[in-house]
Amino acid sequence: MRVLGIETSCDETGVAVYDDQQGLLAEALHSQVAVHAEFGGVVPELASRDHVRKLPLLIRHVLEEAGTLPKELDAIAYTAGPGLVGALLSGICTAHAMAEALQIPALPVHHMEGHLLAPFLAGEPLDFPFLALLVSGGHTQLVLAEALGEYQLLGDTLDDAVGEAFDKTAKLLGLPYPGGPALAKLAEQGSHERWRFPRPMTDRPGLDFSFSGLKTFALNTWQNTEQSEQDAADLAHAFQQAVVDTLAIKCRRALEQTGCKTLVVAGGVSANRALRKRLRTICEERQAQLCLPDPQWCTDNGAMIAYAGLLQLQQHRPVQASPSAHPRWPLSALSDTHR
Ligand code: KG4
Ligand code: ZN
């Protein structure tokens, strides 16, 4: 079975072909960073238009590289949500038009389920249940993955997502968009000793998060410095340490509470080296297995969507009758779809 995957939920156009026997055959990714950089963030209408421009070229390229004719595809998987509605619609329309022409199923994929499955793309065995930490620009969630499509939300952010907090703090320090990776790089030059930021909501029970206070703490700290390059690096370091510690404390607590022996970490922020290192230590202490995606599959990509689509096809999950975008779509709602 061979599936074409299309990802257009935000500012990356991702396309890939995944085969059940041979794995990932080809993938292509077009980043819109250059389109949005001058605005300091994603401009939704520009994102949609750029997806529409790039999708046909990427699809042709990926099919050629995979040595696959359109008629050899068994399904087209696409991100149906959550995300920017116009951006999602560009992928949805393309996927449904192709599927209709080829008379094959068009499979809606939940973007966060795609992220959650990304660590298994390269052939690592997919064994349920496991605990998943989903950390991206729009999400910070702890999820108990009981089976494919069966996800129980254990903890969520009450305000900003962790990637959003990285991006906003980076902007404060004058770093270019997208801020997360730039802040992480700068943090490597920062001092360990200079500041200690709070670890929000770790002093009370529960698995929820809150990151907006850290952002305000960063703002107040920054305004009381000379705003030198070293100040920026020290602040980046202190901020990142606080985020990493907070996520690690909650992961340890969730591993204890669920008794899970596997922690899966996915989403853009899972590329963060300090976080990867810290979670490795936590998992070693608890003799749990840590599953991380390869760095190129941490952020948005088409491969995770093609792979999630293939699993859906194998699982015979009911296909939606009409194409529709779900800009807001809780992961736990997937269980209702196939009960
Ligand atoms: O999963 P993703 O590509 O898109 C969403 O679904 O949101 O995640 C993007 C987020 C951005 O906020 C970006 O700044 C953050 O992931 N990010 C990072 C790193 N790489 C990407 N944050 C911290 N450290 C990184 N190395
Ligand atoms: Zn994402």
Describe the protein in words.
By secondary structure, this protein is an alpha/beta fold. It folds into two domains: 2-118 and 297-337, 2-Layer Sandwich (Nucleotidyltransferase, domain 5); 127-293, Nucleotidyltransferase, domain 5 (2-Layer Sandwich), CATH 3.30.420.40. It is built from eleven helices and ten strands. The two termini are 24 Å apart. The mean pLDDT is 96. Bound molecules: 5'-O-[(R)-(carboxyoxy)(hydroxy)phosphoryl]adenosine and zinc ion. Zinc ion (ZN) binds at residues 111, 115, 136, 267-268, 300. Zinc ion (ZN) binds next to helix 4.
Map the helices and strands.
Layout: E1 2-7, E2 12-19, E3 23-31, H1 33-36, H2 44-65, E4 75-81, H3 85-102, E5 106-110, H4 111-117, E6 130-135, E7 140-147, E8 150-156, H5 162-172, H6 179-187, H7 212-223, H8 229-258, E9 262-266, H9 273-285, E10 289-291, H10 302-315, H11 334-337
Parallel strand pairs: 1-4, 4-5, 6-9, 9-10
Antiparallel strand pairs: 1-2, 2-3, 6-7, 7-8
Bound molecules: 5'-O-[(R)-(carboxyoxy)(hydroxy)phosphoryl]adenosine (KG4) and zinc ion.
Zinc ion binds near residues 111, 115 and 300.
Name the average pLDDT: 96
- Specify the CATH class of the largest domain: Alpha Beta
Number of strands: 10
Q: Provide the CATH topology of the largest domain.
A: Nucleotidyltransferase, domain 5
**Proportion of β residues?**
15-25%
Number of domains: 2
The helix tally amounts to: 11
Distance between the termini: 24 Å
**Bound ions, cofactors and other small molecules, one mention each:** 5'-O-[(R)-(carboxyoxy)(hydroxy)phosphoryl]adenosine, zinc ion
Shape verdict: globular
